[in-house]
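Lab notebook, page 48
Experiment: co-folding of the full assembly
Goal: obtain a model of how the components sit together before planning crosslinking
Operator: M.T.
Materials (sequences as entered):
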Amino acid sequence: MPAAAARVIAVDTYDIRFPTSRSLDGSDAMNPDPDYSAAYLVLRTDAGDGLEGHGFSFTIGRGNEVQVAAIEALRPHVLGRSVSELCADPGTLSRALIGDSQLRWLGPEKGVMHMAIGAVVNAVWDLAAKAAGKPLWQFLADADPAWLVSQVDFRYIADALTPDEALELLTRGRAGRAAREAVLRAEGYPAYTTSPGWLGYSDEKLTRLAQQALADGFTQIKLKVGADLADDIRRCRTARAAVGPDIRMAVDANQRWNVDEAIRWTRALGEFDPYWIEEPTSPDDVLGHAAIRAAVAPVKVATGEHVQNRVVFKQLLQAGAIDVLQLDAARVGGVNENLAILLLAARFGVPVCPHAGGVGLCELVQHLSMFDFVALTGTTEDRVIEYVDHLHEHFLDPVEIRRGHYRAPTGPGFSAQMRPESILQYSYPDGAFWAADLRDQPQEIPA
Amino acid sequence: MPAAAARVIAVDTYDIRFPTSRSLDGSDAMNPDPDYSAAYLVLRTDAGDGLEGHGFSFTIGRGNEVQVAAIEALRPHVLGRSVSELCADPGTLSRALIGDSQLRWLGPEKGVMHMAIGAVVNAVWDLAAKAAGKPLWQFLADADPAWLVSQVDFRYIADALTPDEALELLTRGRAGRAAREAVLRAEGYPAYTTSPGWLGYSDEKLTRLAQQALADGFTQIKLKVGADLADDIRRCRTARAAVGPDIRMAVDANQRWNVDEAIRWTRALGEFDPYWIEEPTSPDDVLGHAAIRAAVAPVKVATGEHVQNRVVFKQLLQAGAIDVLQLDAARVGGVNENLAILLLAARFGVPVCPHAGGVGLCELVQHLSMFDFVALTGTTEDRVIEYVDHLHEHFLDPVEIRRGHYRAPTGPGFSAQMRPESILQYSYPDGAFWAADLRDQPQEIPA
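Observation: model returned without errors.
Model output:
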């Protein structure tokens, strides 16, 4: 643990953008041209142990500077704080950030300001796990259940999950933990891959990547849909032909539809046996998802990557609106709120299949699923973490996939730390990549 | 109308903050120390007619700079646009802003980025109404119903309101319009006042202000509650004694409670005959509001000032979760989205009683209620606009209250324009007020 007197002496921020739109990686019906980006922060301390807390909000390009500004607005809450107190109790900081009496107006608990809170809170957990010398999944799995309960904000969810119920779930979840940890270290955690299915890819590329996914040991793939029904039917047929009948094939509409359209379109794809329909409509529409789910069964309904906080997840579960909960590590208020969401999912018996991809999301979210397996639900049945093979090379401790499974990270922390040279090169607009790029295309400099 | 060739040549932004926290004006259980602020913009054109479009997001202090950054992120969508095209069809810009394929990730349609869209869209409506030489309420009431329908984004609400249904509501709403316009001009639109009820006020001040409200012709007041039940009981008793049994007395918890707490606390105040309980819990909790409403009747349930968009309002109406819809002019995506919300409320027969106060919110929202009366629902029964007597002196065309009613504005535009000298003085941190203030208290400069 850090020296008792050590303080946070800097909260450094970076606007990091990768030019992914140029290869159509990540293209879908709602997001045709993402430049995967991170509003990134580093907590520096005077502990003298060389440890830093790294965290980030994921965005897809324009507006990343707004996200950085939001992180900077939180700086006064963190600067000067005791490192040992932060690491011993990230929940107190989490509550202080969410409860800031003026910043709260900008949400509350949603959008830019809430994602900024998530970035800062996650950086603290990265630091805490590093100080403990453990990967975050293990740091959480080794933690005392009562302490984990103390890290959860039950405001607005107590009608669905009480602290006592959470404690019971976590206490029960510990039984057999050592055996599951051994399984995790040996086999990893199941993954599925979205790499074949981006909208911008040709049918030939789709077929090739789908067959590659099979060869790589994945048992589930995902296709983007929602722009054009005839195209979707052709692409689903192509993918199904490539992978055969036994592989799960999810489809993802990225919020393109109204409720009625979602029902019609999903039914029209039914002959290809889609496993789930993801983001059929607005992530805010609890009742809409419930109506869609009732109409498209046995196709499952999945959402979560844009669900703003635990309050909306609570309702999706209360209303029986989803079959699959897609946790995201960087959308909500960080590890503390994701503990609440994992507990809610466990309480309602709904499997969590995290959203990942982008930049760094795979690195982060694997820890949460692995904790869930080792010390909460105790199962990986019907659970898979999304995997996309983009941009991992920029991380010090990148995810490792073997035979369709995430390997359990062994390095201390949250796997959130980007390589210094990547930060330098892709900082916007002054890093080496962008400076050269913008010099070549002066007429296209965004404001 | 502006010359056909005229373009938007500048989108100037200002970070304007008023030090209201020092007088405890605006103090409530969740917001103890607001500094009412505006992330403000001015659209300037080369039309040569001297007209500008003014708009703003309302915030309560810290983070106003984040809100300004979000408005600036939208600048490329507006700069260079044809003024006549913008004014003839603000809906096209509104859709472009909401649909920005990268900025969308930062919401979608919620929080900082969505409020920024609202500010820009409202500035366009201000300019359009000025160009037409009409106050906005009249500009809307005179508009062709089919054109108004074209201004609404039905995405995600078509399961509750179709374009055809909207057209029917607006067409029917026009009947008798001239007579209602005459009534509006003669009598104004009913208001209620929150001025007596801020948490930070003494009982003596509460009594004095409540009696003053009666003398001023108001028939409804509102008290902040939710910090301490014994205090609330004493304050409700004091206020009820001051105003007698015939005045409506609403109470407002500003999201302090869980569902169960909201039910218990509201019932505990029942003997004082509260008219509505406002913001009993998270604005995101549709199902929670429905449960509270079922349990606290005949006390009505009201919410809206923090409801992020039309999708959540749709569900509040579908679930029968609210008796009163509290429209806010600056929280959602501007006039276009507020048209959708007014139409949804009309469709479900739920009265709209707008949230106002802060800085400039009264000036804006009166136009929307007046349009609703003249050309949509045709009634003011059980409808009142909140009124708070703060900061109106900073506006060129401030609201005017007479005998408990908002007078109908007569000046062209959206009444959004702040006095230049106020902008100069209260710009943060360099305006005259803040420069002097921060010089006196250098240790308290926020980051």
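Interpretation: Chain B has a mean pLDDT of 95.
Next step: discuss with group before ordering constructs.
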